[in-house]
Amino acid sequence: MKFKTIFILSLAFIMSCSKDDSSSSSNSNITSSLTCKIDGAAFSAYNISATNVSGSTLISGVNSSSGVKLIQFTITEGSKGEVNLGDGDLGQYGIGTDLFNTNVSQNAVGKVNITTNDLTSIQGSFSFDAVNNTGKIVKITDGKFVVKK
After folding, report:
1. Is the pLDDT of residue 1 over 70?
2. Which of 27, 84, 98, 125 is 20 to 30 A from 90 (CA-CA)?
3. Which domains are delineated in the chain?
């Protein structure tokens, strides 16, 4: 239930926010993107954001072209290099109201590789398996992200 609440709040936040494009010139040439494959099907997000919350960074993106889909992961703020997703740092996939999480106890885990994490952007790659409350697993592969701060 905790994860479903986080998912719903995150989705509401992402859908209601828009990124301010009047950023300083030092990061004006960075374009945010988040792409991956969901069970082998291409996914490209829009309304991509990186939000700092209580010592963690929440990276998320939404696409609603064929039902609202959300990809997000939470990592320790300032992370760089490989981060394991599981019960601490978390990966999530949502479609409609169905939420899938990385969950170590059900072998649904993954990794985020942070290649850049500075004042202007956070960039890297990701993949994870996520499971919903009925035990269905979704495979998120070939993930790449660039998020302008």
Report:
1. no
2. 27
3. 2-15+31-148 (2.40.128)
| CA proximity to 149, closest of 63, 76, 74, 57 | 57
The CA-based diameter of the chain, rounded to the nearest angstrom, is: 47
SS3 assignment, position 106: helix
Res. 57: pLDDT tops 70: yes
Over 50: is that where the pLDDT of 18 sits? no
Write the Ramachandran bin of 96: left for phi over 0, alpha for psi from -120 to 50, otherwise beta.
left
Whether 2 shows a pLDDT value over 70: the answer reads no
Amino acid at 38: I
Residues of the chain with pLDDT > 90: what percent? Answer: 64
Q: Using CB atoms within 10 A of its CB, is residue 16 exposed (0-12), middle (13-18) or buried (19+)?
A: exposed
pTM comes to 0.81
DSSP for 130-148, written as a single string: EE-TT--EEEEEEEEEEEE
Sign, CA dihedral 106-87-90-142, equals negative
